[in-house]
Amino acid sequence: MPTTSQALKCFQLCYDLTSKYCSIDLVTVDKRSGNVILLAREDINLEIEPNGKWRFV
Asked: What is the pLDDT of residue 1?
């Protein structure tokens, strides 16, 4: 289950991507690390840590 910080950041990132007509392919939680993984198109891979900080992977 994602943290509140992860959920809010995920929504913000999804909103930003789709407002630029970029489709979201997958959103899931990595059970090993607890990070939210967001895949968009073929070249955008984002990882959101439990504290809400995110990075490109």
From this structure: 87
Q: What 3-state DSSP class applies to 42?
A: coil
The answer to whether 46 touches 54, Cβ cutoff 8 Å, is yes
The pair of structure tokens assigned to 39 is: 């895949």
- In Å, the largest CA–CA distance within the chain is 31
pLDDT band, residue 42 (cuts 50/70/90): confident
Q: Which amino acid is at 25?
A: D
26, containing H or E segment: strand 24-29
Where are the alpha helices (H) located in the chain, listed in sequence order? 4-19
Structure letter (DSSP) for residue 32: T
